[in-house]
Amino acid sequence: MTTTPRLRPCTLIWLVLLALTGLTWFIGQKGTTGLGIVSFVLAVTLFKSQMVADHFMGLKHVRPFWRGLVFGYLVVVCSLIGVAYYVSLG
To answer: Is the residue at 1 inside a domain?
Structure first.
């Protein structure tokens, strides 16, 4: 009886993070700009950060307060980066 190797959840999440990092790197290398592209990259960054917090920092199974606190911090940081980019356009 043979068993097929399965990916552990943390390995799968790491591969997703790697793929999303490659996507944002590719966007940066192409030199594409604009509010839509920056918003997309910031949204991907927010998603990646939440995945790291949930799965690698162990916040997936803690009280909602702590998850909300970390998520709120990430939203504030991404928002400030977005505002700085928007201000630099004008």
So the answer is: no
Q: Which pTM does this prediction carry?
A: 0.83
| Chain segment 8-59, per-residue pLDDT in tens | 889 999 999 999 999 999 999 998 888 899 999 999 999 999 999 999 999 9
Report how far residue 47's alpha carbon sits from residue 17's, in angstroms, rounded to the nearest whole number: 9
Read off φ and ψ for residue 58, nearest 5 degrees.
80, 25
Of 80, 89, 15, the C-alpha closest to 42 is: 80
Domain encompassing residue 31: 9-89
Token reading at 34 = 């604009």
Cα distance between residue 10 and residue 31, in whole Å: 32
